[in-house]
Amino acid sequence: MTELFGDDLLARPRREVAPGAVHVPGWLTLEQQAWIVERFREWAAGPVPARAARIGGHPMSVRTVCLGWHWQPYRYTREATDVNGARVLPLPEWLVRLGRKAVAEAYDGAAAAGYVPDAALANHYGTIGDGTMAKMGMHQDKDEISREPVVSLSIGDTCLFRFGNTETRTRPYTDVELRSGDLFVFGGPSRLAYHGVPKVFPGTAPEGCGLEGRGRINITLRATGLDAPEAGEDAP
Ligand SMILES: O=C(O)CCC(=O)C(=O)O
Ligand SMILES: [Fe+2]
The pTM is what? Predict the structure, then answer.
C-alpha cells in the first residue's frame, strides 16, 4: 500500500551519484514496467534469441538480447554473427522516445533534444546453475563511438549497482540500490565510468511489475555513433 502511493520514494530521493550520473528512483509506473516485460519476452523469442555473450571464452551469467545493433564483446554489428547470424530487430520508436524523456528527466530538455539512441541491450538476470543470481563484473561501456549518455531502466528484482570512476575497476565507487522502475543515466564526465552489478536480491520484485519471481531485467539505451544505413540499403 505504501508503494502504491510512492511513499518509498520519500526515503529514496533522486541523486547525482557522480558528475553526470543521475539516479531517478521509481521513474516507470508498474503498468509501464509490466508492458516492457511483455515486449522483452517478444524480443527474446527472436529472430536473435537472448543469449549469454562470451567474454574470453567464458559465458556471462546474464542473458542479453539486442535491438538496433547487436553487441558482442567488443563491437556492434547488425547481424548476430556470434549467435545465429540473423539481423537484430530494429530499435522501436517508443524506446527512442523513452530514452529522450529519460535524458530530459536526468539532465534537461536541451540535453534530450539531440539524443537519438540507436541500440538497446536488454539483459536478464536470472538464477544460474549454482542457484545464485546472475551478476555483472565492473566494466566500461566503451564500444560506442558516440559519447552520448547511457540510459538504464531496471525492472524486477532489486540489485546492488556499483558505480565507480573512469580510471580503475576499484574504489572510489558508490553502491546504489536499483529497484524495479528506477532510471539511471550516465553521461558527461561519468560516461566511461566503470560500473557493475555485484548482486541481485531474489524475490524482491514488486507485485505487478510483470517479473515477480523471475529475476531482473535491465535495458540500456545507447547511441553507437555507427552509420545509420539509408532506407532499403543493406547494413555493413
Ligand atoms: O544491469 C545493469 O544495471 C547494468 C547493465 C550494464 O552495465 C550493461 O549492460 O552494460
Ligand atoms: Fe554497462
Answer: 0.95
